[in-house]
Specification:
With about 120 residues, the chain is mostly helical. It contains 5 helices and no strands.
Length: about 120
């Protein structure tokens, strides 16, 4: 993967984060139609915010702390504005968001360090 530089990897991580953030905003703010997805709501929050926190630390491990803080704040903001979209705010959802952000960010940073050692040129 000689074509993959640190800059390109960062840009891919940034693009993935923007796309995931948009999808999460849509899914968490859309009115509930009753069908829903199978499984625990808290598990969905954990997985969504882990996925959101993964790409940037993968691309730049030094961004781990800012990403965890930013993704956690994003989860909190979504919980605060959900009542204006016909949803309800839930502390449990926010906690799942924060735990997902920590897990996804740490996993992304560790995987990114390995990936860059093996595949990315300086």
């Amino acid at each position: 993967m000689a074509f993959l530089t640190k800059y390109r990897l960062y840009m891919l991580g940034l693009a993935a984060t923007i796309i995931l953030g948009t999808v999460i905003a849509f899914l968490t703010l859309a009115p509930i139609d009753g069908s829903g997805f199978p499984g625990s709501d808290k598990l969905h929050h954990f997985l969504a915010f882990a996925a959101l926190a993964f790409p940037l630390p993968f691309a730049r491990p030094r961004l781990l702390l800012p990403v965890i803080l930013g993704v956690s704040a994003y989860g909190g903001l979504i919980e605060l504005i959900q009542p204006y979209f016909g949803r309800h705010a839930d502390w449990g959802d926010f906690i799942a968001d924060v735990l997902g952000a920590i897990f996804g960010g740490v996993l992304g940073a560790q995987c990114g360090k390995w990936f860059r050692r093996v595949f990315v040129q300086a």
